[in-house]
Amino acid sequence: xxxxxxxxxxxxxxxxxxxxxxxxxxxxxxxxxxxxxxxxxxxxxxxxxxxxxxxxxxxxxxxxxxxxxxxxxxxxxxxxxxxxxxxxxxxxxxxxxxxxxxxxxxxxxxxxxxxxxxxxxxxxxxxxxxxxxxxxxxxxxxxxxxxxxxxxxxxxxxxxxxxxxxxxxxxxxxxxxxxxxxxxxxxxxxxxxxxxxxxxxxxxxxxxxxxxxxxxxxxxxxxxxxxxxxxxxxxxxxxxxxxxxxxxxxxxxxxxxxxxxxxxxxxxxxxxxxxxxxxxxxxxxxxxxxxxxxxxxxxxxxxxxxxxxxxxxxxxxxxxxxxxxxxxxxxxxxxxxxxxxxxxxxxxxxxxxxxxxxxxxxxxxxxxxxxxxxxxxxxxx
Amino acid sequence: xxxxxxxxxxxxxxxxxxxxxxxxxxxxxxxxxxxxxxxxxxxxxxxxxxxxxxxxxxxxxxxxxxxxxxxxxxxxxxxxxxxxxxxxxxxxxxxxxxxxxxxxxxxxxxxxxxxxxxxxxxxxxxxxxxxxxxxxxxxxxxxxxxxxxxxxxxxxxxxxxxxxxxxxxxxxxxxxxxxxxxxxxxxxxxxxxxxxxxxxxxxxxxxxxxxxxxxxxxxxxxxxxxxxxxxxxxxxxxxxxxxxxxxxxxxxxxxxxxxxxxxxxxxxxxxxxxxxxxxxxxxxxxxxxxxxxxxxxxxxxxxxxxxxxxxxxxxxxxxxxxxxxxxxxxxxxxxxxxxxxxxxxx
Lengths: 381, 346
Description:
The structure holds 2 protein chains of 2 kinds.
Chain A: H1 2-33, H2 64-97, H3 102-116, H4 120-134, E1 143-144, E2 148-151, E3 154-157, E4 159-163, H5 165-193, H6 199-217, E5 221-225, E6 228-233, E7 236-240, E8 243-245, H7 247-273, H8 277-285, H9 290-320, H10 332-344, H11 347-376
Antiparallel strand pairs in A: 1-2, 2-3, 3-8, 4-5, 6-7
Helix pairs in contact in A: 2-3, 2-7, 2-10, 3-7, 4-7, 5-6, 7-9, 8-9, 9-11, 10-11
Chain B: H1 2-29, H2 32-40, E1 43-47, E2 56-57, E3 63-64, H3 66-79, E4 85-89, H4 95-100, E5 106-107, H5 115-120, E6 123-125, E7 130-132, E8 134-139, E9 154-159, H6 163-175, E10 179-184, H7 187-196, E11 201-205, H8 206-213, E12 222-224, E13 232-234, E14 237-239, H9 243-261, H10 278-283, H11 300-307, H12 311-320
Parallel strand pairs in B: 1-4, 1-5, 9-10, 9-11
Antiparallel strand pairs in B: 2-3, 6-14, 7-13, 8-11, 8-12
Helix pairs in contact in B: 3-9, 3-11
């Protein structure tokens, strides 16, 4: 009986191992025939190409491994910003879809139908090239908010210049730890004595006061660096100083956000509509305020419906960010599976590393969302 | 009884081993790639995704260009018809993988011959069909007339996956200029971004700059700076490990260049058969056994000249008459002050 159960599984496993074995062997033989060696030694070689935009210290004299890290961080950056923005926009649009106001309702549904039905690559090209053509040259750019310039070469804005940033950073962490323990304490008080603290306000206070103290006693100092126009040639200008954000990052973030937000909006709408009307009425009948109804009754139930499909959208956004290569945003695919692959000729190794990286990122997001999903799931007591 | 059987088996085994050796040497003469090409009936050729003058397809899907002509020459030599070529457009990133994986048999795609490419990735370069060098294009209105006027903070648009990226870094580093590279996957996007004003300069091979300039919204607004910052000998590439095929491609290219040297053109090739010059007679298959070593007939080179033309004809048709680079520069014959020089066909 047990044997019968195991046999099909064993055969499937054997089949998979054989298929993989065959492909590995085949690749090995072909590579041997063509005199290509397999190995990861190239990662420590000098990359000798520069990258437009990097979060860490990098130039061409660093190794391919470092270039990989630059690409990875750029991918994570655009995914991170994209996920946050598309969540915010998605929730707003999703709620707007349910609005009784005809104009808001129709605008939101027009937005959803338009952006989710146009291929993403096309949208990326649109935002990039449309924006490039519409934006002014650096010398013609108007000053925005007294500090920034939006130009064809990117957004130039003020950059913070820190003194003793590490002290400030430690203070931030301490503040977070204090907030964590305060919330635990407040919860216990409420359970034991029914006493309620204004948790949010006190937390915010801690978050501001502790880091602010470091300016007075910790020697932390903050000044701002403003971008300044610099002439390169007769009609060619750029900005120096401050913080420069390349138009590629802006266009990519915009396209990914607008596209993914449509799917999240639909998830949010489905989630809210999935909570029975009776729940709301019952909550109101026991005297909860409308904001309490939303926070304590509707949202916890809606989230259970919203989270799993939204996880998919987060994964999609991260993977879609690889379209960056089309518009010169130096993400993992452009830098590593593009330039580095070309310069080294190590197609198999590099594609394998890139695939493993995306898999790891996706599984990490997935694991986090599953953990969150479990936390908000109905707890049987 | 068993004793004899044992001897018999060892005899059979020996004969078998000998037999495999002989067939091996026979097969080596006739290359595997050649055999496959003749069986398929077309040459599989990797080209660019559209570089006027080198490899570019018109609206009807007909490929033209000096790189295209190398593949056509090989098709004329081994299949008897210069049109029996299947062209595969490849990005800079895909090209070597396509060749080493066996998807194409010749890569003729403005590819720079470098040591690491030749030695590292299972490729063999067979020659040079265009001597090029990397240059810079800027807007005329900028007033820049030389790379010495470049300043810190300049942004440069280019393609990924080419030697251009590496040369650019070497150049700016040696001048001590800080720059922003903006590298795109496809040439069309580089042109569009530079044209829109994203970058102060556009850098690639000078032939490429001249060709891409024709695609700009207003070509007259841009100039190519005089400096050349690198050597870019462009040429066809084959897979490592098939020396006969390698020779066929090499000598197909050499035949075109030598034909120009001796004044043999597509128009007069047939009449040259009765020439007094034995060198010319060898070039049109009227003397010697020049094809036998490749496993080809004796008129393989005549067909190349008749169907594709000599190098000068190809250059004129594709690059000079289209206004891309009317001046041949280094790509002139060594007898006329250029550096085109090929070993003799004999």
